[in-house]
Design brief:
The chain is of the alpha/beta class. It contains 26 helices and 20 strands. It binds coproporphyrinogen III.
């Protein structure tokens, strides 16, 4: 009986649950089965078959089987599809009758009902049939109890990943094993559905996953690893119901640290979907109800749609925006952090007459220094003149800037009462930044992309808690370690304000936003994951698709993969990492920005050019590199050296 056609099945069905299915060959049929039982199918094929004519091992096997003196005593058929594929490959060279006759002379073993059917269809009656549950163990014991294996030449028709246990078991009994991999699986050519399926899992937008082969498990997890989302995907699975077609597939899931909730009574798609519909609702109720507690770091990493999905900026084809999307550009775009600052005489002239905060608060002054820097340096982007600490102004903590000392916060936040005292921030209070953006946009927006920015929650929290700049972040980390719940509440507030602040800047005309997590490199990866990642991720997820996000930090060599997990189209690199190594570590799945040491600008122009060349060489002309310093320009930097750098990058990268 086909379980899928039992129209009056007693189970209530999926009731709208979202089911991710990784099956490839039968993807459409499986989706229909899921939908017939009231589920929403998320089809995410994870495999692609390698063409038959590329199966050299199968062709060699055919030659050796049919040779005048057959070279095998035993042939094991592991799968139905594989058996058929093997025969088809052999038929490209020999008549079916000749190898059916050769197989009749040896012992043939069928692992399960599908290999039996395939063999019979091809005119071969299996000598030995392995009993249920049809794993390699049953194959081995059925063979060993029927045959003396010592000295026997055994061929195994294999599917996908090698079954080393079976080979080892046979060899331990004295057999000589030849493995005949008939088809191997690679990732599908179009990986977008798989990527979307994994994102659904990572973000909690899926309830159930069903795996229909062990190779799928391998491909899915390897792909998640390559995309840098393996950990969030695993956490996603841990909140879902997971079904497996059978014991081999389940073993592979467990080998990857994933759990298995159910296997069907019989290893076929219909029974698997039936078991899923019957069992998933109660499994999910148990898993998600009752003891469910959102732990920091256990929450899914929110995701945005890729920027390329929603064209937005009128400067869409500007090299800077192309680089954000990892598209080829005629040259490598460059801009510099703190490009409008004290190193520049024009800035100092304005600054002599106005306080720093006053400059930020007066849109015409902020716009003027922003535009002057772009025109003087001929960089490829403007960054709005402002400061990451401005959102602390409406928090009424007594922020001011002391000459020489940098920012000072008179009433730092040290405990729960302090967090509770912070008033809810309406970013309209920071409307002057939006006004400045509009002025810049009006002046140069038709030709130059404008970067809006904000501090990431961790870096903002460090100022709020320390009361100013810090070396060790002792108060910040002590707060985090001793008052984790209060920490998370503070970070949530900062994340919400930051997201609103950035959205306001985008509404005013920012084409790109950069998130400065300048001091996050003071944390180890585990702390980053639990105390920071979910909050930065929630800021980035709030940014509308189509507006690229640059995610920047310093001393983050140990955190780059996690920062990418938190989000961002572009990851900022400082000079402590080699750009080529760092980008390779990120699998080129994001653009990168950086990474000249700001102090290199104090060296002579030939040295600056040599270092710029070295960084461009590390980027290797790959689309998606934005040239920048590894951190902001220092106040004493010679302006003509900065200009020489910009010219050098434009000239050397012209394509
Ligand atoms: O890059 C730009 O040209 C845009 C303007 C900008 C400023 N601050 C102006 C500024 C940007 C992007 C920032 C970001 C910022 N501010 C960060 C993150 C970037 C980084 O450097 O990691 C941080 C940590 C701050 C906080 C801050 N503001 C500090 C520590 C200081 C004092 C140190 C210093 O460089 O003076 C500021 C003041 C500040 N912000 C100045 C400028 C031009 C100098 C103020 C002055 O003229 O006295």
């Amino acid at each position: 009986m086909n379980p899928d056609t039992e129209s009056n099945s007693p189970d209530p069905g999926f009731g709208g649950l979202r089911v991710v299915a990784f099956e490839s060959r039968m993807a459409a049929q499986l989706a229909t089965m899921i939908e017939r039982r009231g589920g929403v199918a998320i089809v995410a094929p994870a495999m692609r078959e390698v063409p038959l004519q590329d199966n050299r091992a199968a062709l060699d096997f055919a030659d050796r089987l049919i040779a005048a003196r057959c070279e095998f005593d035993v042939v094991i058929f592991m799968t139905g599809v594989g058996t058929r594929a093997l025969f088809q490959a052999m038929e490209t060279r020999h008549s079916r009758a000749s190898f059916a006759a050769a197989l009749a002379q040896v012992a043939t073993v069928a692992r399960g009902p599908k290999s039996i059917r395939a063999m019979r269809d091809l005119g071969v009656e299996p000598t030995i049939v392995a009993p249920e549950p049809n794993t390699w163990r049953e194959v081995l014991s059925a063979l060993a109890s029927n045959l003396e294996l010592q000295g026997k030449r055994v061929a195994i028709q294999e599917y996908g990943a090698s079954n080393r246990e079976l080979t080892a078991g046979l060899e331990a009994r004295g057999a000589r094993v030849t493995v005949v991999p008939v088809y191997r699986w690679t990732l599908p050519a179009d990986r977008a559905p798989l990527r979307a399926g994994l994102n659904a899992i990572a973000t909690g937008a899926a309830d159930l996953a069903i795996f229909t082969s062990s190779n799928q498990v391998t491909n899915v997890m390897q792909f998640a690893e390559a995309e840098g989302i393996a950990d969030t995907v695993k956490r996603g699975f841990s909140r879902m119901a997971v079904g497996s077609i059978g014991p081999v597939c389940s073993a592979q899931l467990r080998a990857y640290g994933l759990h298995v909730d159910f296997e069907p009574e019989h290893a076929n798609l219909g029974h698997l979907v039936k078991a899923a519909a019957a069992e998933a609702p109660s499994i999910l109720a148990a898993r998600r109800g009752g003891t469910h507690r959102i732990e920091a770091g256990a929450a899914p990493t929110p995701r945005r749609a890729p920027a390329s999905d929603a064209p937005r900026s009128q400067l869409r084809d500007h090299p800077m925006l192309k680089a954000c999307r990892r598209e080829a550009a005629p040259y490598t775009p460059i801009w510099l952090m703190r490009q409008a600052g004290r190193y520049m005489p024009e800035y100092r002239r304005v600054r002599e007459r106005h306080g720093f905060l006053e400059m930020c608060r007066r849109p015409e002054l902020a716009a003027e220094v922003t535009v002057t820097a772009v025109e003087r340096l001929k960089v490829d982007a403007a960054i709005i003149f402002a400061d990451i600490l401005l959102p602390l102004l409406p928090m009424e903590v007594g922020l001011h800037f002391e000459k020489g000392d940098g920012p000072v916060i008179d009433r730092p936040i040290r405990d729960e009462a302090g967090v509770e005292r912070i008033p809810a921030v309406d970013v309209a209070a920071l409307g002057f930044v939006g006004e400045a953006i509009k002025l810049v946009h009006r002046a140069i927006g038709a030709t130059t992309p404008l970067i809006g920015f904000a501090g990431a929650p961790f870096t903002l929290a460090s100022y709020l808690i320390e009361g100013g700049s810090s070396r060790q972040y002792q108060a910040t980390k002590t707060f985090m370690y001793t008052q984790p719940e209060t920490w998370h509440r503070l970070m949530e507030r900062l994340a919400r304000t930051t997201a609103d602040y950035l959205k306001m800047q985008i509404a005013a005309g920012a084409d790109i936003v950069q998130i400065f997590d300048s001091w996050v490199g003071s944390l180890g990866p585990d702390d980053y994951r639990s105390f920071v990642l979910p909050h930065t991720a929630s800021v980035i997820a709030a940014i509308p698709a189509g507006v690229p996000v640059i995610h920047f930090g310093t001393v983050t060599g140990n955190l780059l993969e996690l920062m990418r997990e938190a989000g961002g189209d572009v990851i900022g690199l400082d000079w402590r990492v080699n750009l080529a190594d760092a980008w390779a570590r990120l699998n080129y799945s994001v653009a990168v920005q950086g990474n000249l040491d700001p102090i290199a600008l104090f060296a002579g122009v030939p040295e600056i050019r040599a270092r710029a060349r070295a960084i461009l060489d590390q980027a290797g002309g790959r689309p998606g590199h934005i040239f920048n310093l590894g951190h902001g320009i220092l106040p004493e930097t010679p302006v003509d050296h900065v200009i020489a750098l910009v010219d050098a990058v434009h000239e050397m990268s012209a394509r």
